Amino acid sequence: MFTIVTDTSSNLPTPIAKKAGLYVIPFTYTIDGKVYTSEDTEAFDGVEFYGKIKTGMKVTTSLINSQTYLDHFGTIAGQGQDILFIAMSSGISGSYGCSVQAARETMEKYPDITVKTIDTMGASLGEGLVALEAARLRDEGKTLEETFQACRSMAVHMGQVFTVDSLSHLRRTGRCSNYKAAIGTVLNIKPLLKGNEIGQIVTYGQVRGRKKSLQALAKSYEDHVQNADKQTIGIAHSACVDDAVYLIGLLKASKHPPKDILTVMYEPVTGSHVGPGAVALFFVGDEHVRSI
Predict the structure, then answer these.
(1) Which residues of the chain have pLDDT under 70?
(2) Looking at the domain assignment, is residue 276 inside a domain?
(3) 115 φ/ψ angles, rounded to the nearest 5 degrees
(4) Interval 30-52: pLDDT, tens
(5) 71: containing domain
């Protein structure tokens, strides 16, 4: 057996992460000089949080440094467990690089332990769905190497498309690589964004109006999803439940309805970057899903 580790950017509700037997390392965020973690999803009031961001509350976030990873990895390795770490995209955070360094140091200290890391090139459920698949494979009796290879392939084929009310939050935090290509909220133009081949956030289109932007997400799913009837797909939103419900209706009425849909509120670290009103869709797609 081995331990599957992820971080809170995976956006998995606490009960789901616990049921899957995941070890979760928290990211932190700061408001008015006070540091918080997003470990307890049940206590997070997303409506209040995103409402305050709308009225001007500033949130800053920090990467998880190598020492923090080293401490957590060391605890697990000290119990004789190999480790598979499912990480947030290196395209939007330096945390993955820190985890690789910590993995190397852990294996030097514990030569009988193997630590493997996966850059999901994603965040939110683009990371969380991979972690859940890793847990499923482990529980089926797959080896660390078999699980690593399968989940790395899944990450490469993970479609991650989303829309936001405004690009200002991604612009402020430097998380959108080509934001100048989109008009943003001018004339009610809504940007369409995705995770690209190296896990960066980029715009890939724009449409007029909120509903059309959600329809565009559903079309990306329709065009690229693979084996929909066998997979759980994901939706994350920043306190816009009605929009998420509308998108769910589109997906269920599509030519390729999914087996199941996991819907979550954006956790505060990733959510502070996409801002209020973000709606994201995550699914396993074809070889072109990241280049749409």
Answers:
(1) 166-187
(2) yes
(3) -120, 120
(4) 999 999 998 878 889 999 999 99
(5) 2-27+63-156
List pLDDT tens digits, range 161-193.
Answer: 999 986 665 555 544 555 544 454 456 888 899
Q: Are residues 162 and 276 in the same domain?
A: yes
pTM: predicted TM-score of the whole model, two decimal places: 0.94
Residues 118, 151, single domain; the answer is: yes
CATH assignment at residue 226: 3.30.1180.10
Indicate if 242 and 141 belong to the same structural domain. no
**Number of independent structural domains in the chain:** 2
State the angle between helix axes of 144-156 and 125-139 in degrees (0 to 180), rounded to the nearest 10.
150
Pair 146, 185 in one domain: no
65 contact partners, CB below 8 Å, separation of at least 6:
98
Closest of 204, 223, 237 to residue 289, by C-alpha:
223
Q: Please indicate, yes or no, if residue 174 is contained in any of the structural domains.
A: yes
Task: Examine the domain organization and report whether 132 and 19 are in the same domain.
Answer: yes
CA–CA dist 215, 247 (Å, integer): 7
Measured from the Cβ of residue 167, the count of other Cβ atoms closer than 10 Å reads 22
HSE-CB at 188 with a 13 A cutoff on CA atoms is 5
Rg for the chain, CA atoms, rounded: 18
Whether residue 217 contacts residue 279, with contact meaning beta carbons closer than 8 Å, is answered with yes
pLDDT at 184: 47
